[in-house]
UniProtKB/TrEMBL annotation:
Source domain of life: Bacteria
Residue ranges annotated for the Activator of Hsp90 ATPase homologue 1/2-like C-terminal domain, each copy included: 11-150
Protein name (Swiss-Prot/TrEMBL): SRPBCC domain-containing protein
Stated family: Belongs to the AHA1 family.
Pfam family, one: AHSA1
């Protein structure tokens, strides 16, 4: 497991960036920036600390799939931590087995630090070796889209 880090300065308040990133006011803002990972990307559940949340999309055959996760921490406008512990295959949760063991318990952390009206978003995520190239190229695109949406 490798830990990746990405940063983006956004000309907007931490509150605006946080709300845009998590889709608090409208889920569409979440779906727009995460479309860089999967055009059908969305979530089902709550961002409340301790809540289960599904990060889902559909594959080329229209089958739903994604991550089964828990909001490990959520301090509004400052920090969000997501702990991934399973996969969603259609409507079935898979929380054990060799594929899951590769990354179960991995964290995805978002920090929001505002100074003089500019918010620096820092993303730290654990990832399996096989996804390094994908995440290294895709996170930058996703954060650029978040910046565009937040600065509107």
């Amino acid at each position: 497991m490798k830990k990746l880090q990405f940063k983006k300065d956004i000309n907007a308040s931490a509150e605006k960036v946080y709300n845009t990133m998590l889709g608090i006011d409208t889920i569409e803002t979440y779906e727009q920036w995460t479309a860089e990972f999967n055009p059908t990307s969305t979530y089902e559940g709550s961002w409340e600390k301790g809540s289960k949340i599904y990060f889902v999309g559909t594959d080329e055959n229209g089958k739903k799939g994604g991550m089964v996760s828990e909001i490990a921490d959520n301090i509004p406008f400052q920090f969000v931590s997501i702990r991934h512990y399973g996969m969603l295959d259609g409507e079935n949760e898979i929380t054990e087995g060799p594929e899951i063991e590769k990354w179960a318990g991995s964290l995805e952390n978002y920090s929001f630090h505002e100074q003089n009206g500019v918010t620096t978003v820092t993303v730290e995520c654990d990832t399996a070796e096989e996804y390094l190239d994908y995440f290294n190229s895709t996170w930058d695109k996703a954060l650029n889209k978040l910046k565009e949406l937040s600065e509107k």
